[in-house]
Amino acid sequence: MWTLLINILLVATHLGEFWPFSIFPMFSQAGKEWSRGVVEQVEDSSRADLWETKSISEIENRILPLKDYGIHEIDFANFITKTKVWNEKRLNGMRSTFQIDQYPGEMWLATRVRGYMDERDSVVIEAIPMFLFTADTTIKNPHLFPEP
Amino acid sequence: MMRVLQNLFQLDDPDSVGTKIQLRAFEFFAVIYTLIYTWEWAFYIPRLSDVVLPLGLANYLDISIFFSNDISIYNAVLISLFTLVPLLLKRVRWLYAIAFVLFHLQHVARFSQGEIPHSANLVAFSLMGLGLAALFFKGMKKELSFAFGFTLFFFGLGYTSAAISKLVATGVTWVDGYHLWLWMGEKSIDILSLQGEFQYNWLQELAFNSRFLATLILSFGLITELLGFTIWFKKLRPYIVIMLIGMHVGIDLTMNIFFKTFTIQLIIMGFFWNRYINVIPGIEALNEHPLVKKILLY
Predict the structure, then answer these.
(1) What is the ipTM of this complex?
(2) A64/B170 touch (CB, cutoff 8 Å), yes or no
(3) Which pTM was predicted?
(4) Which of A97, A124, B18, B158 could form a disulfide with B278 if both were Cys (CB 3.0 to 4.6 A apart)?
(5) B65 CB contacts (<8 Å, ≥6 apart)?
(6) Given B47, B113, B197, which is nearest A78 (Cβ)?
(7) Which of A24, A38, A96 is the closest to B192 by Cβ?
C-alpha cells in the first residue's frame, strides 16, 4: 500500500516519470504531428536543393545508418527535435555525439523529419535539413537560421 | 484487498522445488538483465555531453558528472558486485537495495537526452523488490515471494495505467486506425535512421490498406492493456499474460518496437511453472542435492 502511495506521489510531482515509477504515457496522445531525425550523407554541398524541405522519399537512399557509427537513433531524434535554442553548446553536443571529427571527408546533414495527416487522410513525411557537419565545420540551414 | 495480496504474495506449495526454481529464475533474470542494461549504458554514457531532459534523481543532482569520464564504468562495476554477491552467495542481500539506487543513477545518466524508455522498468522494479525484501523480511522464501509479488503488482499497474493514460489524453477515439498509420510512419523513420533503409512488412501494408484492420489492432491493444491489472489474480494470470505477449508481438510487427525484456519476464512470471515442474517424477530430490541447493535453490 505504501509503495503505491510513493508511486503516486513521485509520478504526480515529476510529470509522470520518476524511473522506474511511471504512468507509462507512451503513445497516449494519438493523431498528433510528430518529429524525428535522420542524417543524410551529402556528396555535393553546393547542390541547389540542399537546404530545401523535401519529401522523405527524395533522400531515403542517402540516409546514414547510425548503428554503424554507434549513435543511438532515438537520442539523435530527441536531440534534434527537442532542442529549442541552438546555441554553440548544443551544436557542439551534437558534433560530439556524431564524433564526425574522426571522419574527414564526410559531410553529414542532420535533418528533422516531420509527419502528419493531410486533408486526404494520407500520411505525409517531409525532411527539413538543419545542419551540415563536416570534420571541421558546422553550417546552419540559412532558411531556418538567417544571418543577423 | 486481502484477496489481491494473497493472489500476489502467496505462492502454491512454497517449499517445493518447482516454486524455488521459478523464484530463483525470476531473481537470476532480474540480475542478468540489470547487468546487461548497466554495461550497455556504461559504455555509451561517456559519449554524452549535455543534459537535454533530467529524469528522476537527475532533477536534483548534476548528472553530467557521469559524462566524458569513466564514472559510469565504475558504477557498473559496483552494480555488478552488489547484485552478483547476493545472487550467488545468498548473503548480504540488502546490497540489492544499493544496487537499485546505483542502477537508477545509471539510467538517468544514460537517458538524459530526451528519450524516456520503459524497457528496463520492470527489471528495476524486480531489483527494487529484491532490495526491499532483504530490508524488511528474513529468509529467502519470504524475500523471493515478496519480490515476485511486488513485481507482478507493478506489471498490472503499469499496463492498466498505460491504457488509462491513453483514454485521458485522447479518449476512446485513440483506437482509430488513422493513428496507427501515423505511428507506423514515425517508427519507419527511426528504423531508416538506424539502419539506413526500411521496408514496410506484410501486416503494416495490410493495416495501411484497411483503416478497419488498423482500428481492430489498436482496439485489441487498448483492451489488453486495460485488463493488465488482472495479472494480480492467479486464475486470470495465464490468460492475460498470453494476451499481453500477443500485444507485444503485434507492437513489434506494426511499430517495430519489441519489448523483449518485458516479454521474457512475462513468460517467467506469468505462468505456473512451479506446478508444471513439481509433477516431474523425482524432482523433489533436487531439494536435497548439495550443489543444486548451494547455487540454484535455497
Answers:
(1) 0.90
(2) no
(3) 0.89
(4) B18
(5) B71
(6) B113
(7) A38
